[in-house]
TrEMBL record:
Protein known as: Chemotaxis protein CheY
Species assigned in the record: Catenovulum maritimum
Domain Response regulatory: residue ranges: 4-117
CDD domains given in the database record: REC_OmpR_CpxR, trans_reg_C
GO molecular function per UniProt: phosphorelay response regulator activity; transcription cis-regulatory region binding
DNA-binding region: 129-226
Major site of localization recorded for this protein: cytoplasm
List of residues that carry 4-aspartylphosphate: D53
Top-level taxon in the UniProt lineage: Bacteria
Gene Ontology annotations for the cellular component aspect, listed alphabetically: cytosol; protein-DNA complex
Amino acid sequence: MSYHVLIIDDDESLSELLSEYLESEQLHCTRAKNGLVGIDLLKTKQFDLVLLDVMMPGIDGFETLKRLRQFTKTPVLMLTAKGDDFDRILGLELGADDYLPKPFNHRELLARIKAILRRFEYAQEKPETQTNHVGNITIDHNNHCMVFDNEKIELTGTEYQFLVYLVKHLGSLISKETISEEILGRKLMQFDRSIDMHISNLRKKLRVDPEIQIKTVRGAGYRLIVGDN
């Protein structure tokens, strides 16, 4: 299967190098020199993944992400400043699926891209059932969202995958290591906050049903419970 990656970065030299490298790995690439151009492209063409730089003139990566999340669930891998936890956390809060700090190793970038593409391709496979229920919430597998009291609650692709996985293991303690390997497709790294942020974002959306809780077991992982279980 041929994948199409959109690179949104004002650094044209870096974008060209990234494009050449990814093209050599059989990933078709399109480059956008700023957020507005990238948004326009996403509105008119189908992409499998977006590489989005944070630091750009005009509208930065965060504003670009906010705008594109209004109309697309295309997975986004953000390229952040090395050591800047604020950038990473904010990006995940706004709906990024993963992040990679600059400067990065090209092989690490390729591994992250392939992991995201694999899990999103798996998520697109036709489910055995169109919906299932947890508490008073319906999970709509066709549209990758939740429904509560006839109201649609949008989920990012990664939030949807986290929810489905936790529901599948309802009541069981799931370690961060397992979540990282099974959902993110990579080993858990030290100081990686991505799982915590995805869980936090999912918790906020699950608050519509007080019966459902994602419990944190300090030093161990997470457990999804319904009611008093």
